[in-house]
Protein 1
Amino acid sequence: MLRTLTRAYHGALGTSIRSAAPALSPLANIPYLQAPRLDSAHDQSHVGSVQRHLQDAGVLKISLNFDDNDSHYLTNLIQGLHRWHGHGLPITHSAHRGWYWDIRPSQTVFQCPDHQARSETMNEFPWHTDCSYEATPPRFFALQVLHPDQCGGGTLSVLKVDNLLKLLSESTRAALQKKDYLITVPPEFRKTDNKDESIIGSLLSPDPESGSLALRFREDIFTPLTGEAGLALEELKSVLLGPKAQAEVVNLTAEMMPRGSIIIMDNRRWLHGRNQVKDPRRHLKRVRWDARQFGLD
C-alpha cells in the first residue's frame, strides 16, 4: 500500500554552527509503504516497490504491521534488494560490530571498546551523511524505530542534497569536487589499529546512478588542504544554515515515526541529523548497505 506523508513540522535540528531560530519545514513529501507481514520482504513485488521509490525519491518510510525487534524484515528486505536489484550487502560498522548498530543512549556500555559513538549519547547530531570517512561509503542506510523518544526530543531531520547544492555558487561546487580534503575516521569506526586513519578526497562527485552530484558531509572530520577548499567548505556550511536551505528541511517527529517505523535513505542524495534526545529509552537500529566508490576513480 502506497501513501504519501504530507504534514508540516517546525524545524528542530541545530547544526555545528547554530542558527538563530528554527525554521518551518515545507510539506513533507515522503513515499510511504506498509509491510503487512514479516514475509512481505520475500515478495518480489513489494521489494520492487521499495526499489522504485529509492530510485525516484531517494527516501522511503515503511510501517511494519507486526513486532520485529530483531529486524528480520529489514534483513530480508536488503537481501531481496541484493538478489533482485543488485544492491551490495550491508557493511560492518567497525572492527567490532556486524551489520546492525544500536542507536540508544548509554553511559557505560559501548559497542566499540574504549570509544563512545555519538549515537550512544543524547546529544544533537549536526547535519551529515553516513560514513563520510569511507572511500566507498554505503549508498543506503535504514533506521528502524524500536522505542521512539516520548519526551519531545530525538527528531530526525532530512534535507535533499539537490535542494542544497542549487544554492551554492558554481565556483564552490567546482572546488568541492576537488580531492582537497583530509577526512579523518572517527575512533569508534576505525577498522585498523592506526590512530591516524584517514583518507583524502572530495566532498562532491558526479553520481552515475542518479545523474546528479553526490555529497558526503560531516564537518568535524574534514580538514581543507587548500585555501580554495576552505572557502568552499565555509560557503557550504553557511548556505546549509541559511533560510533558503532551512525552508527545505523536513522534520520527522516521534509522532510521525512511531515504533515499527523504518526510514530508508539514499546516503548521497539526502543529508540527515537529529536534535537532542530527551528520552533515555529511545532506541533505533541502523544498517548500511550497497557500498560504492565515491567519485569516478
Protein 2
Amino acid sequence: MSVTQQQVVEWCKKQVASATDFPSLESCLDAIPSLETLAPLPRGTRVLVRGDTDVVFDDQGNIEEDVRLQSLVQTVKYGLEKGWVLILYGHRGRDPQLSLKPVADYMQKLMREKGFPNLEVQFCSNWMDDATGKIDPEAGKQVASLSPGSLIVLENTRKYKLEQALWKAKAPDIEAMGERLSNYANGMREQFASVHINEGFASSNRDLSSTLVPLTMDQVAFGSYIDTELKKHVTRTRLAEMVIFSGLKINKLDDLQAILNRGQVKLVIAAGSLAMALKKAVAELDGTTFDMGEAGDPAKSDSKIYIPPERIAQAKEMVQKGRSNGVEFVLPVDFILGDGNASDTIPNGAAQFDVGPKTIELQAQKVGEFINYSAEKQKAGKGPAVCFHNGVFGMFEKEQFANGTRKFVDQLKRMHESGVEVYVGGGEGGAALMRYGNESWVTHCFTAGGTILKALGTEPIPYVKALYLLTQK
C-alpha cells in the first residue's frame, strides 16, 4: 500500500525518537514474522531482500571474507526454490562509488555451488533519482522482465545520498526531506516488490533511509540467518553477567554504559581506551592517581587515543553506579608501552599498546572465579553463566602487542570448555578469535559488532524497531 508524505514523516519521527518506553527486544522479535510465513507466496512473486552485502575486497579484487554473503544463502536458496524473483539490495563500504557488481558476480558463483548451476544473477546499476527519491522506471522494467527463480542485485544504496539522510536526523530534518523519503518508499513497492525480507544483520544498527522500505509492503519477514541470530543467540547474549570490553574507540564507553544500565552484568573486564577512562575514574573516586600518558594530554587532543575530561566524568558515573549495583571492574594493572616493555605506569608522553603480564594473570584469575560461579549456577539448576566478549586488548596486528589478545582468546576457550556460554561480537574480536583459535572455541561468534552492542544496551536495533512499528500499523 502507498503511504502519504505525512505518514512517512510521522513514522520516521517514531523511528529516530528516544526509545526509553519501547518494548523489549524479545517482545519485538515475537511480533516480527519469520521467513516461513511467506511460504504460500506463488511462483513469480517479487521479493525485496535487504542483505549484508558490505564485504571487503583485496588489491586483486577478491573477497577477503565472504561470511556475510554466506549468511544470505539459506534465504536466497529458499526464495529461488519457491520460484520467487529476488531483488537483493544493500551497501558496500563508506565510499559511494564502490559498486555491488562484484558482489552480484560472487553471489552467482556462490549460488551455483549451492545447487543452482544455471543461475544468471542480474545487476541494476542505476535505480534511483537521488534528487527526488523516485525509483527509475527503467529499473522497474528490468525487474519486471525477470522470470521466476531469478536473482537481481541493485547497486550500492550508498551511491545515493538519500540512504544516509535519515541517520542521525532530527525532527526538522525529517520534515524537509519527507517528499523524497515517501517517493523512495512508495517507489520501491511500485517498481520492485510488495514483499520484503530483512536479512541484513550487520547493517541493522543504523537508522538508514532504507529502513523505510518495508513501510509500504504487504508482507514483511526476517530472513533465516537474522531470525536465528536474533531469536537464538542475541537473546542469550543479553543474559551476559560478564562482559569483556576493549578497543581504541572511546565512544564504546557509551555502549558499555548502556549495557550496565540494563542491570544484568556483574563483572566487567576492560582494556584499551575504555580501561584508561575507567582506571582514571577509579583513581579519582578513590583518592589516588593514575596518569594516562598521551591519552590524557590536552595537547594531543587530535590523537585517536586522547580521552577528553567529559569521558572521565562519564566513567566516574558508571563506576559509582556499577559499584552500588555490585558490579566488579577488572582493569589493567600493567601495560606494554611503545618500546615493547611492560610497565606498571604510563609515563608522560607515552602510550599503552597492550596489557602486561600481571594483567593477563589477573584476568585469568577472574575468569577462573567466573567459571566457578557458572558451575554453582548449574548445580542450582539455573543454567550456565553467559559471557560476552567485544574487541581486542592491544594493537594485535603487530606481534609485539598481540600477547594480551592471544592469551585472552585462550581464556574464551577455557570458559567454553568449562560450560560457560561464550559469545563473541563481530569486528576485531571475531578476527582475533579466528587468528588465534576458531569458532569451536566459543558458543557463537557474531558477524555484526554494532548490532550486538545495540541489542545488549538500552536502545533497540533500528531495523528491528522499524519492523516492529510496521506490525503495529
Protein 3
Amino acid sequence: MKSAILALAISGASAYVAPQTKVSGSALAATKDEVVALAEANPDFLGQAIGFWDPLGALDTNFWGLGNEGTIGYLRHAEIKHGRVAMAAFLGYLAGSTELVSGPHKILPYRGYEPGLTPPEQWDAIPLYGKLQIIVLVGMLESYGEILDPHYTNGGLPGYYPPIKGKRPELVFNLFDPFGFFEQDSPEKKARGRLAEINNGRLAMLGIFSILSEAGAPGSVPALQGLIPAYDGNVMIPFSGDFSIFS
C-alpha cells in the first residue's frame, strides 16, 4: 500500500497522458517506452525541463497483479482523476470564499449554516448526514466509472467516464459534457484537450495544496501570505468534528 501511495504522489511528474495523435486500442494500455515518449513530448514545464521522471520506479511495479501495463494504466487514470478533483477543489475554494456563496442566504444551504465562514469551516459546519450524502454520491459515480469495459487497466482509455444519460429516468445529463459541446470535436482536438486537462490538473494540485498549506500554517507559502484565512482544523481529518475512531 505504501508503494502505491508513493507512486501516486510522483505520478503527476511522469506525464501519463494520452498522445496527441489518434491511437489504437492497444496503445491505450501504454508500455513503459510509450509513457517515456509521452512525457518527453509533453510541452508543459515538466515535460520540457525534466522529461521523464520516475525516481521510485513506479513504472516497473506490479500493483495487485495487474501486470506492468495494467499498473501504468492505473497510474495514468489516477493522475487524471486527482487532477480533476484538484481543479474542482481549487475553483470551489475560490467560489466558497466569495460573499455570494459564504454570505447570508434567505434559504439556508444546510441546517446550521453560518455566514462568513471559510470553505474548510463550512465543511466542518455541515451536519454529518449531509457529508455522508456527498460521500455516497461520489461513491456511486465512482463505482459506475469502474465497471466500464474495457477497464483502464486492461486496454481502456485512462480518464474516460462512460455516458450516464438515459440509464435511469432521472439521469437527463451526462457527467462529462452534459450539453454536448465537444461531441463534434476531431480526435486530434480531443487529444489536445486531454493533454491540457492533465497539465491544468497538475497546476491545480499545486494550487489547492498551496492554499491549504497557507491556511494551516500561515506564512508557509510567502506568495499567499495575508491572502488566505487561517484554519485551526485539519483538512486531512474531514470528520474530526463528528466522530473519531481513536477516542
Protein 4
Amino acid sequence: MNQMEQTMNQTEQYDVFEISFENADTENHVIEHAAVFEHGGKEYPADAFRKEDGVYAVRFMPMEQGTWNYRICVDGAGMDSSVERNMQKTFECVANTHGNHGPVHTQGDGFRYADGSRYLPFGTTCYAWIHQSQELQEETLKTLAESPFNKIRMCVFPKSMPYNNNDPDVYPFRKREDGSWNVWDPDPVFWEKLDTRLAQLRDLGIEADLIVFHPYDRWGFAELSQEESLVYLRYCIARLSAYSNLWWSLANEYEMVYAKSMKDWEEYGEMLLEKDIYGHLRSVHNIFLPFPKKPWLTHCSVQSVDIGHIPVWKKEYGMPVVIDECGYEGNIEYGWGNLTGMEMVHRFWWTIFRGGYCTHGETFHREDEVLWWAKGGKLYGESAPRIAFLKTLLESLPGEWKPIHLNPTNPNLDLNDPEAVENERKFQKALSAMPESVKEGVMLGLNTPLQLESEKFLMKYLERMRPCMAHLDLPKEGKWTVEVIDTWEMTWTVALRGVSGKVKVDLPSKEGIALLALKED
C-alpha cells in the first residue's frame, strides 16, 4: 500500500501516511512541526513541504501497529474543511502485507531491518537513471526486478561526465528570471517523479541510496551556496524521509565538490541527525580516503580497490563498511570501468570475506551511451548472475555467521605443538622489528583468513589462487560435510562426508574456489 492507496483512517506499517492541505498562511517550501503524531505515549513532530503551488503535505511513516493520533499545527490550514488546526484525528496502522520490513539500521558491523530481519546489502549503481526517458526508466526497473540487487546508488541531481551528455526533461528547482536556480521553488513535476521511483524501488525490496550532492555538474548544482544547499536538504528530508527504503548518501566523491568545506558536510550530517526522525542511514562517499568518523555517520561508504583494508577500517570506525565503488565490469577506456566479470565477482567475494559489503556497477561501451552505471537500462555483463549465486548462498547459511577478524597471531597455530609455538614466537619477534605498514600488511595477508563461520558451518574463499588441495581444521565435535564451490560456474560438489578434525580436500586447480563445511545433523 502506498500513499496513493491509503485511506484517511488506515495505512500499513512502514508505509507512507500523507495529509494534504491548502490555504496555509505561509509561502515557505517547508513548514516545521506542521503536524504531531502520537502513539503509545510518544509524540513525533513532522514537517510539511510544498507539494505543488498552494498545496502542502505532511508525510509520516508509522513504525508500530495500532491507533495513531495526529493533529495539524498550521495556521490557516484546510482542505474542504476536513483539516483544521489542532483538530485531533486518528488512523489505524495495520500489518504490512507487501514484504516491507521497514527502514534499515546498523547493528554492530552489519545491518538489520526495523522488524529485526537481517539485511545483506548487494548494491548496484545507476547514478542518473531517473533523469532518462520514461521508457528507459521503466526498463531499468524491469532489470532491477530480475536482478539480485537490493540497494541502488542514485543521484537527485543529473550528472555530467563521459556517457552522460543528455539533459533531463525536468530539474529539481525552477529558475528565476535571471536564470539562477531558486531552491525555494521546487518543481513538483520532478519531485513527483522521484516519489514514484522511490515507491517502486521500495515495492521491489530495493533500498535507495540517495546521493544528495556530487561534483559532475554543468548546470550549477555543485555551486549552490551553503544556505541554498541547506534549504534543498531540508526539503529532501521533509518530503522523502517517510519512505522506508531511503538511505542518505551526502555525496559521491565529496572531496571533489570543491565549493564545500568540511564544516559544510558537518552541517548536513547534523541536520540529518536532527530532522530525520526515522534515523535513516547516513554516509559520505569518498575518492581518496574514507570520510572521517563523525557521531552522525552510520556506516562507511568507501571508494577503494584496497579491499584487504576492510578489517582496519572496521576497527577504526566501529561500524559497517560498504565498498560502494571498487571498479566496474565493462570495457570502456577508463581504468575504473573495464573489469572482467570474474574480477567483479572476485571483489564481491573478497569484500564479504573481509567483513564488508560490496556494490556492483557495469560500464560496457555502447554507441547510444546507455551504460548501466550512468543511465540504467539492461545488464550485459557476466557478474550479476554470479553475484546472485553468492547472495543465495549467504542467505542459506545456518546461524549468525561472521568473518574472522584481525588476529595478531596465526589463527591456524596448534598450541599443542611446541615446535610450532616456538616458530611462531620467532616469527612475531622478527615481525615486530618491521615498519607499521609492513606489520599491517602481514597481519591482513597471513593472519586474517578469508573465512566465514558460525557454530554450524565454516567457509573459506581461496581468491584468485588455484591450489590443487587444501587443508581444513574442523571441530572434532560432530561430523561435517565438505563441499567445493565454484564461484564462476556456480556449482557445489560434495568432497567429503562424515569428517571432523584435520582433513585434506582435493581441488580443481582453478581460480574462484570456495570451501564450505556444514555440520551434519
